[in-house]
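queue> pop job 88
queue> type: inverse folding (structure -> sequence)
queue> payload:
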């Protein structure tokens, strides 16, 4: 895991993060055939939205999603200790 995580980033703005995430979730129904999504798609989409809300420059698109998912897994592993 990186030394500087978004959880410790001094540039993190919770108001902006919440604004983005709320918009992301409330517009989810605009996606084509969202009713047919499986739980894995739903979870991946929510994780993606959470990552982008934290830092769009680091966690947007597929590469950013993979990076955020690894960071989140590491964070959860550490939280279990």
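queue> result:
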């Amino acid at each position: 895991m990186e030394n500087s995580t978004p959880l410790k980033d001094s540039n993190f703005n919770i108001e902006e993060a919440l604004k983005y995430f709320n918009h992301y979730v409330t517009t989810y129904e605009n996606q084509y055939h969202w009713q047919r999504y499986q739980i894995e798609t739903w979870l991946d989409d929510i994780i993606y939205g959470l990552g982008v809300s934290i830092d769009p420059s680091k966690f947007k698109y597929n590469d950013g999603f993979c990076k955020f998912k690894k960071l989140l897994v590491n964070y959860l592993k550490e939280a279990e200790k």
